[in-house]
Design goal:
This protein is of the alpha/beta class. It has one domain. It contains seven helices and six strands. The protein has a six-stranded mixed beta sheet with strand order 5-1-2-4-3-6, covered by helices on one side. Helix 2 crosses helix 5.
Length: 211
């Protein structure tokens, strides 16, 4: 689902407020220049590093080598995500939101952490284990990121996400040519462990079927 321009403005306000309190860390020399990885206020440095490592390792598996846009990936800490999705009018089980106009993707950070009540609720809602939900969520949001025009709706994002998980060389081109053949946010800058009209997000009603 793509959110309204008002929602993008809300995210911009929140992000700028957080960024004003950011404490930057120098990335390693092999960090891809276009990417910035951020943990929202409320993360400890330890959990920020741990959750980011899980996310970035997964992202590195799916990242198309031809993608060269600047992009900010935001992990939101425990307790903060439900309020964000509620304010934006999304379902509580929404695990991620992409904002192409702002070049940002926000994730529920608990998706990348140790087992928790939140993970249990996500697993029960989506009927899928957490490792596979991580893969689906990251590839779905990446579809919005790398194929903004082709993944302008959630059904197409699901299809392109499946191609990304299958390591298709040109998932956006496949969507344009043969759609009938497709299967189915203080911030810390984080040093990557490996290697976003406004919001597109994994929503109830996508390829995964919740309650």
């Amino acid at each position: 689902m793509l959110a309204s321009p008002q929602r993008a403005r809300f995210f911009l306000f929140v992000f700028l407020a957080l960024a004003s309190l950011a404490r930057a860390q120098d990335p390693e020399p092999n960090t891809p220049p276009p990417f910035r990885f951020v943990c929202q206020t409320g993360y400890s440095e330890r959990l920020c590093a741990e959750h980011s490592a899980v996310f970035q390792t997964l992202l590195a598996r799916f990242q198309p080598h031809s993608f060269r846009q600047s992009w900010t990936w935001v992990l939101v800490p425990r307790g903060a995500w439900p309020d964000i999705v509620h304010r934006l009018g999304h379902h509580a089980a929404t695990p991620a939101i992409t904002i192409p106009a702002l070049h940002q993707t926000w994730f529920d950070g608990e998706l990348f952490g140790e087992p928790s009540v939140r993970q249990f609720l996500l697993r029960e809602h989506w009927h899928i284990d957490i490792p596979h939900l991580r893969e689906f969520t990251v590839s779905h949001e990446l579809a919005h990121v790398v194929c903004t025009r082709e993944a302008a709706n959630e059904e197409n994002a699901d299809r392109i996400g499946a191609l990304i998980r299958a390591n298709a060389a040109s998932p956006c081109e496949s969507q344009r040519k043969k759609p009938h053949e497709l299967e189915i946010q203080t911030a810390h800058d984080v040093t990557p462990a490996a290697s976003g009209h406004p919001v597109g997000s994994v929503q109830p009603g996508s390829a995964l079927q919740p309650h």
